[in-house]
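User: Teach me something about this protein's shape.
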Amino acid sequence: MALSNMQVYDTEIYTTTIELLGQKLEAFNAASGGAIVLNTNAWQGNYTKNAFFQTLAGAQRRVDRDTANAPQAGTALAQGEFGGVKVAGGFGPVTFEPSQMSWLLRSPAEAIMVISEGFADALLADQLNTAVGAAVAAVENISALVNDVSATAGMSQVALNKGHYKFGDMSGMLVCDIMHSSGSESLTTKALENGERLFVSSNVTVVSILGKIMVVSDIPALYVAGTPNKTKVLSITAGGVIVDNASDIITNMETSNGNTRIETTWQADYSFGLQLKGYKWDETNGGSSPNDAALFTGTNWDKAVSSNKHTLGTLTVADADK
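Assistant: First, the predicted structure itself:
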């Protein structure tokens, strides 16, 4: 491994990472039914905003034909605004010695693939953990969207169904349940044994049970230790959570002297955008380049629509030990 080739290897790691990430994003999006959309669409600045027209349901009224014609107050055609926020992260530095490869007569391509695979998996995990954590916080902040049976019961299909029906007659729009493995053991076991396995990446599994997609992953936001220990299932509509700008990655490889052997380090900075259907990031309270504490604070995600049924989904909470 010639030291002059270090920059070439940096470029190859970056290129391989982008290719692997793109493949994983495409596979996950298809497997999850599009509930969580991971893409590489880029946008500038700290925030993204999308305007929409508010519902005109209030303009409908009953008319009395037997009374005198009278003035009627109008309904304003108004716009609302969805808004997302950009999240920043880093990976590394990863340290290795160039002489390791030449000493073992191993191909540099092996190191490139190991680093690329590790970074792509870590980035995907960060996107999922962050997106689901923010979504759980936003939904949990609206009590009418939460079915909490943790005081008396464990996770069950009955509890999930009641959670789904927090959307009322629009519960059919919920296409995916995201749950922690600490949910009811019988429910999880049944899912993994009888379901069709759709996607596996690191510690994320997607299965289909009778056409219902269930994502099983130990995402921290889906489990809360305490008395009782609580497990959570986030039920999401198609396009309920969008993670974009995933290709915003800057990498650098450096080789340095000063120790008994030459060392090389590789490091990456990255960012991604996060948008939640029906919610707007509170720029005043949440701020720019937020940390996890801010992202996982429900009051930093303001509901931007009048109807709860037009938000990203519902939440079911149960006793993890029952």
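Now, about its shape. The mean pLDDT is 79. Residues 3-50+80-319 form one domain. If you'd like, I can walk through any region in more detail.
User: That's plenty for now, thanks!
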